[in-house]
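Subject: two folds for Thursday's group meeting

Dear M.,

Sorry for the delay on this. The cluster queue was jammed most of the week, so I only got both jobs back this morning. I'm pasting them in the order they finished. Each block is the input sequence followed by the predicted structure tokens. Could you check whether the formatting survives your parser before we put anything on slides? The first protein is the one we discussed after the seminar.
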Amino acid sequence: MKLLVSVTITLLVGALGGFFTSSAVNGWYALANKPSFNPPNWIFAPVWTLLYLLMGIALYLVWKSDTAQGLKRMAIGLFAIQLVLNFFWSIIFFYAHQPGWAFVEIIVLWTMILLTILWFGKISPVAAWLLVPYISWVSFASVLNFSIWKLN
């Protein structure tokens, strides 16, 4: 049951973020100047779906662990904060059309993902490694976000 809840939470956050993203992809974002390394639009949904799935599994591994409650509570709290930041980035960038503020927010998000990885690593190295593709993609997204902000 914890696995189902963990994965469902992350996928729901992704779906909600996708709701705010989808309307802008063919509108504002389509018209924005983008760098040459901007991936095709179709790649984002499958990549994010996989990342949310990995995030959910990582959350499950930490949640089910026999680690001290204080350590587990801190790790899950950090995870929750980064997940909220993840959600709001989509709103700031795509819905509000504010790539500058989205860049500031994604830097905070990246920092929270790193802290989450470090805390997850204290509980489950596998859980920490499951978040490495996520921070890697957010690193790329940060560069992309900055480039779009500068080009527009």
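Second protein, same layout:
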Amino acid sequence: MKIVTFVGHKRSGKTRLICELIPVLRARGYRVGTVKHVSPEVEPDVFGKDTYRHRVAGAERVLLYSLHHGALFWDHGGREVSEFVERFLGDLDIVILEGFKASPYPKIEVYRAGEPLAGKIPVLAVVSSRPAVVPDGVQLLPPDPEAIADFIEAEILESPTRTSG
């Protein structure tokens, strides 16, 4: 399994780009998973629902399951996301993280406006529809899912120097 992180300022287009990239990678034969970073104030389980009540009552893990979907809720006590990526997504070819600027994984910045993150944190590439000044060694990519998939294949999936989680 390989991991790549998409970072960028709020409303830079990370989610849209990832949603366009996933079907491109799948069409190329890759099994893809994602992990979305949210603020601590976001409660992924809904107050008052049975799963929430089970968790508050003390269940270590609560699996929500239907005929077509499932979700696992747990309080992880601040442990690193890498532990859970490996445990729950380790059988996939690539896992795309959204957010996680401080993670040790290779990063691609989605840049729209404001102060770029490239240069402040290490990134492999910057995706932008406008000209942007990027540090030496950082590739500037168009917001084209095919071009981004080409880059990910060359730099992440086929690169022996890029490590997995």
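Two things I noticed about the second structure. The chain has a mean pLDDT of 90. Residues 2-39+80-157 form a domain with the Rossmann fold fold (CATH 3.40.50.300).

Cheers,
T.
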